[in-house]
Amino acid sequence: MTRGVESSLGEPTISLPVSSALAEYSSSSVPLLEAIALRKTFLDPKRSAMLALDRMSFRVNEGEFLAIVGPSGCGKSTLLRLLAGLERPISGEVRLRGQLLTAPRREIGFVFQRANLMPWRTVLRNIALPLELNHTPRAEALARAQALVSLVGLDGFADAYPHQLSGGMQQRVALARALIHEPSVLLLDEPFGSLDALTRERMNNELLRIWDLRRTTVVMVTHSIQEALYLADRVLVMGPRPGRVRAEFLVPLPRPRKPEMTATFEFMRLVQAVRAEIVDGQEMEAGRR
What does the domain layout of the chain look like in residue ranges? Predict the structure, then answer.
């Protein structure tokens, strides 16, 4: 199901219904990344199989910033692990440039909820680690890592260790490490969820700055509706477990995005529309129980 919220932000005025605009996404013959009828189970505490995802399907076009929201436990993080090739579905497929994905690929970068940095390595050497593991010559690996230190705004901290960094700075290192292979797709699993509100806001703006420079295709999971709408071109809403696409919204906010946009009436209408989809899904699930 698709929903639309028209906007008068920006010039020219954007008033294209979402359902019509989304047709452009589905018309692409070979999307960069595609999930096709994914189903995935996991074992609950009683060792019984529980369905986490059911017939989950969507496409992501090259250069697109896609955000995924939904209630806790609906399978968002599980979905990202399938898209990364870290896990396999019990049925369905993930395709990258039309090719079946069955294992992790260098073309796919992943930033987890926690930075997971090596405490004994400096910022520079944490970023360079994937290249070192790939036997890239040391001088080349460090040069590429240094360029990313600058990209994520950590000049002056290349020789610092993780314990000397704030949470936001650690996540910048994790983001740089994920970008070191210049991936075609960057998967973000609630990367700023543990940060305080002001730091999270700064990191959102930093992410937009980096995305604007690189235009890497991004799929981001977040619990924040405001964050999803501020960052993304399109937002998928997942229903309660077993997760599937309940609705999708094309975000008609002009780029570059600016923080003051989040205080507009148009933005709040979008927030309310997405929230309503999540709440409706939870209420329908509660009614079935």
Answer: 1-100+224-289
